[in-house]
Amino acid sequence: MTGAKDALEARRVEINGIVQGVGFRPFVFSLARKHRLCGEVANTADGVWVHVQGDSRALDRFVDEIPKKCPPLAQITHLVTTPRPAGPYPDFTISPSRTAQGHTTLISPDVSVCADCLGELFDPGDRRYRYPFINCTNCGPRYTIIDDIPYDRPYTSMRHFTMCPQCQAEYDDPCDRRFHAQPNACPACGPQVQLCDTNGDMVDCVDPIGRAAELVRQGKVLAVKGLGGFHLAVDAENDAAVECLRERKGREEKPFALMAADLERIGRFAEVGDAEAAILTTIQRPIVLLRQKPGQRISGRVAPGNRYFGVMLPYAPLHYLLLEGDFAALVMTSGNLSEEPICIDNAEAFERLAGIADAFLVHNRDIYLRSDDTIVRHVAGTMRQIRRSRGFVPVPLFLRESQPSVLACGAELKNTVCLTREDRAFVSQHIGDLENTAALDFFELTVAHMQRILNVTPEIVACDLHPDYLSTRYAETLDLKRIAVQHHHAHIISCLAENRADGAVIGLAFDGTGYGTDGTVWGGEVLLADAAQFSRVAHLETLPMPGSAAAIRQPWRMAVSSLYHVYGNDFFGLDLPFLRQIDDRKIRIVTDMMRTGLNSPLTSSLGRLFDAVAALCGIRERVSFEGQAAMELEMMAAGQACGIYDFEWGNGADRPIFLAPIISGVVADIQCRRPLPEISRRFHDTLIVLFTRLCVELRAEHGLDRVALSGGVFQNAILLTGMIHSLEKEGFDVLSHRLVPANDGGIALGQAVAAAAMAAR
Ligand code: ZN
Ligand code: ZN
Ligand code: FE
To answer: Of 620, 621, 609, which Cα lies nearest the Cα of 711?
Structure first.
C-alpha cells in the first residue's frame, strides 16, 4: 500500500457481459496486484464483482485498464463503478463464486486455439507437445460442450475426464493461464484421438493423425471430428477425390469450403486483401469468401461456376496437426448428407457417413450441440455474415431496449431460432433447412438447449405467417401467446434490430421466397415498417411460377414466364439462344400451365427475377441450389457501368413495378449480341437506380429518410454496395446487415423484436 492513510479510497466495480469462464478473475487479480491495490474479485449471478481499494490515481488506472486489457474472450457490456467505504483487506484475493438463483451470465462461443497454446503444441519440451486437445482460458471449446449452467466442468462433456494432479494444479492456480479452464486436459488425463475404419473399428497405429493425413494424400475421404461436428476432408488439389466426395455426399455443385495452413498458402490460390486477412485470423476463424486467383491449382470441382472460394484457417489444434500433411488446402465440408444436419456423435457418424467416408478420425470428447462453420464476406467496407454459427453463437445481440422474452422460430430455409432476455437477443447457430425430421429434431434440441443454458422461459412465441412451415407448426404446439410475423416485415425489423434503430423506415426486402399477406409469394418488396406494423408501398409485378418449386430448380421456367408476361404467345417467335436449348413441348406445357393457372403461384420475388434474367442470358437452365443462377449472373457482371434499362411503376398505394421495360431491354440486348457481362451490369444498375428513385419518391411522401436493406438477395455484393452508395448519395441513412445474415438466417431476430412490439400494442 502506498501513500498516507487518508489517501485510501475504495470502489466497487461491477462488470457484466462475457466475463466468466474466460479468465476474467485472474486478469483482475493481476491487474490489481500491478497497481498495488487490495480487495477481492468474485463471480456473481450475472457477472463479476470487484472490491478494490488503495491510492485514488491507481484506482483510476485500474478501472481504466479493465476494458482495455481484458482477456481475449471477454466481452464487457456494462461496467459500473461506485465509491465504497474501505474495508479490512490486507491484499488482493480471488473469492469463490457467489452463485445465486437465476444465473444470467453469458457463455463464450467456441474459438480457435490461441497463440500460447499453439506454441506449446509444437514445443517438443512441453508436456502437451502434439496434444490435439490443448486449450486454456483464452481458447478452446465452450458452447458446444456445455450441457447446463453454471459453466463448470461437471456440466460439460469434460465431466468424464478427471484431471491429473498437474492439470488440477494449473486449474487451481489464479496465476496460471489454465485457471478454471473447464476443458483443461493433457495427454495423461484428457480426451484422445483414434483412427477408425468404415466399420467403426480402431485402426492400430502410433500416430492416428499422421496416418489420416496419409490417407487423404492418397485421395481418400476422411471424416474428421472437430469442434462443432464432423467434417469431410479431401485433398483440394485432387480432382478425383473431390468428385468422389460430391457423388457420395449427393452435392452436385454447391461450393465446398477449404482449409489451408496459413495466409501464405491461401494467397497462392485466392486474393487475400488486408481486410480479408484480418477476418481470416480472428479468433472466430470463419469461412471467408475470397476471389479465386487466375492459374491456381485447386480442383475445378471445389466451386464449379464460381469465382470465389470459401476459405478458413485451422482453428482446432487437431486441424493444425492434420494440415502438417503439406496440403495446398483441404476441402472441409460439413459431415452430412446434403440437406441433413452435421454429424456430431461417433456412432451416428459411423452410421450416417458410412457410404461417404473411407476413414474416421474421431475422439472421445462429446459434442453436445452441433455448430457449423460460420461463413462471412467482406462487402462495402465491412464483414457481413452469410451463415452465423461457430465462434459467434451464443454471443447475444444487444437490443435497443428490454422486451418480454420471446422464442422466435425462424423461417423454413437456413433456419435459426432466437431467444430474447431483457435487452439481449440470442440467435442460435445455423440449424439448416427445416425440410426433414433430422433437421426438425435438431431444431427442437436447440430450442430446449438454449432455454436451459440461457435460463430463459419465453412468454411469447413468434413464427412466420406461412401456415405450412415446420417452424410455424412447432410454434402452434406451444402453450404460449403466439404471434405470426410476415416474412419480409421480419427481414426489415431484423436489420433495424441489429443496428439498434427504432421508429419507421423504408424497407427494401429483396428475397427468394416469403408468404405474403395476399397469399402470393413475395420477395421484391418495398415496405414502410416499424417493429409493430408495416404497409407494402411498392413491389415487383407478379409473375407466375410454373410448376411452383420446379420453377425454383429450373430457372428457364421463370425466363419463359417473364417472356410470356411481356410478349404473350408472340415470344415463341423471338430469336433467343436459350429457347433453342429447351424442348418446344416443355415450353408449351409451361405456357399452358400459366394460361390456366395450374400449379403456377404468383410471385413478386426479386430472386426469381434474377433467375429469369440469368436463364434468358443462357447462364443456366437449371440449378442445384437456390440462388445459383442469380449468383452466377452477379459474378459475370462487368466492372464498368454501361447504361441501364427503362423502368416504370404504376400508381396506387402499392406501386407495382412493371417488368416489361426491363425484360424487353434484356431481350433486345441479347438479340443484338451485347456481351453478357454488360447485360448483367445493366440489370444490376437498373435495379439500383429504380429503387433509389422509388425511395426518393417515398421520402417526399412520407418524410422518412432512413432505408433498411434486407433479404437473401442482398448477399449479392454488387447490389448491396450499389444500393448503399446510391442511397447515401441521395442523403439517405442506410441500414444494412453485418451481425446477422441478410438471408433467412436473420429472420428469427426480426420475428422476436416485431412480435414483442406487436404484443405490446
Ligand atoms: Zn490457449
Ligand atoms: Zn492432465
Ligand atoms: Fe427471406
So the answer is: 609
Centre of ligand 2 to C-alpha 206, Å, is 20
Measure CA of the first residue to CA of the last residue in the chain; give whole Å.
Answer: 58
How would you write 352-388 as a 3-class SS string?
HCCCCCCEEEEECCCCCCCCCCCEEEEECCEEEEEEC
Sign of CA dihedral 121, 122, 125, 130: positive
**List of domains in the chain:** 5-94 (3.30.70.100), 107-190 (3.90.870.30), 193-363 (3.90.870.40), 539-681 (1.10.357.160)
Q: How far is the CA of 114 from the centre of ligand 1 (A)?
A: 4
Which stretches within 70-157 are classed as H helix? 115-121
pLDDT at 350: 93
Ligand that lies nearest to the alpha carbon of residue 494, given by its number in the listed order? 3
Which ligand sits closest to the CA of 513?
3
In this predicted model, what pLDDT tens digit does every residue of 638-683 receive, in sequence order?
A: 999 999 999 999 998 999 999 999 999 999 999 999 999 999 999 9
Per-residue pLDDT tens digits for 329-376: 999 999 887 777 778 889 989 999 999 999 999 999 999 888 999 999
Q: How far is the CA of 328 from the centre of ligand 1 (A)?
A: 26
Q: How do strand 481-485 and strand 505-510 relate by DSSP bridges?
A: unpaired
The residue type of 343 is C
Distance 488 CA to ligand 3 centre (A): 7
pTM for this predicted structure: 0.94
Predicted local confidence at residue 108, as pLDDT? 87
Taking the centre of ligand 3 as the mean of its atom positions, its distance from the CA of residue 516, in whole angstroms, is: 11
- State the distance from the centre of ligand 2 to the C-alpha of 166, rounded, in angstroms: 6
pLDDT at 147: 87
Gap from CA of 162 to ligand 2 centroid (Å): 8
Q: Roughly what angle, to the nearest 10 degrees, separates helices 470-477 and 437-453?
A: 50
Residues of the chain with pLDDT under 70: 1-6, 97-105
pLDDT in the model for residue 341: 79
